[in-house]
Amino acid sequence: MNVVSAGNPPLFAGRDPVTIRYSLTRADLLFTNARSIFLNRFILGFWTVAIIGLCITMLREPKIAVHGLAYKAVFAVIIAVFYLIVLTAGTVLLTSLMVLLRKNQGILGEHRITLPAEGLVEATDFNESLNRWSAYHRTVTTKRYLFIFVTEGLIHVVPRRRALLQGDLVEFEAALRQHTGGK
Questions:
Q1: Per residue of the chain (183 residues), what is the pLDDT tens digit?
Q2: Cα–Cα distances in angstroms (integers) from residue 180 to residues 8, 154, 163, 174, 175, in the given order
Q3: What are the start-end ranges of the H helices in 102-165?
Q4: Second-level CATH architecture of 18-25+108-179
Q5: Which residues, at least 6 apart from 171, have a Cβ–Cβ distance to it below 8 Å?
Q6: How far is residue 84 from each of residues 35, 94, 121, 156, measured CA to CA in Å?
Q7: Using CA atoms, how far apart are residues 76 and 145, in angstroms rounded to an integer?
Q8: Contacts of 166 by beta carbon, 8 Å cutoff, 6+ apart
Q9: Which residues contact 118 (CB under 8 A, 6 or more apart)?
């Protein structure tokens, strides 16, 4: 694969960059979307404040206020757990609907990531992009996925539990960390 723009030579001329090909499924998309929501500090903070506010409001109700401290503590814990379950279920449902009802062209399906000297090149049947190494943010490896944060807001997700269509993930990750100075 050569990336060629108007009158410029191919980016990979004279090089043999490390390349992987993999497939991204709806399950991968659902998992990574849910993970990003549940690790978002703003959302977690908002949920915490909302649940605490709800508990305080409910504890001021005359029917609850007349009871002892132990009753109020148990009541607050039950309400907090209930609303945490409701918020979590609602979030998972909305995320699932979003993943299942959209076409997600360019996200689902086969991806190819190549690591030339110029930057990280990601390509699908619908798009191709070059992200320069100077803008690279970080790499996160989990048990299930390799998350490649090419910027703070753009992430490529590589499943680790399935076999790649092409390439070696260990070699790819080592080359990626070499290009990015270990980020």
A1: 444 444 444 444 455 789 999 999 888 988 888 888 888 889 889 988 988 998 888 888 888 888 898 998 898 899 889 988 888 888 888 888 887 888 877 788 899 999 998 899 999 999 999 999 888 889 999 999 999 998 888 889 999 988 888 999 999 999 998 888 877
A2: 25, 16, 24, 10, 9
A3: none
A4: Roll (2.30)
A5: 18
A6: 16, 15, 40, 30
A7: 37
A8: 19, 20, 21, 112
A9: 11, 130, 132, 133
Residue type, 133: W
End-to-end distance of the chain based on CA atoms, in angstroms? 26
- The ranges assigned to domains in the chain are 18-25+108-179, 30-101
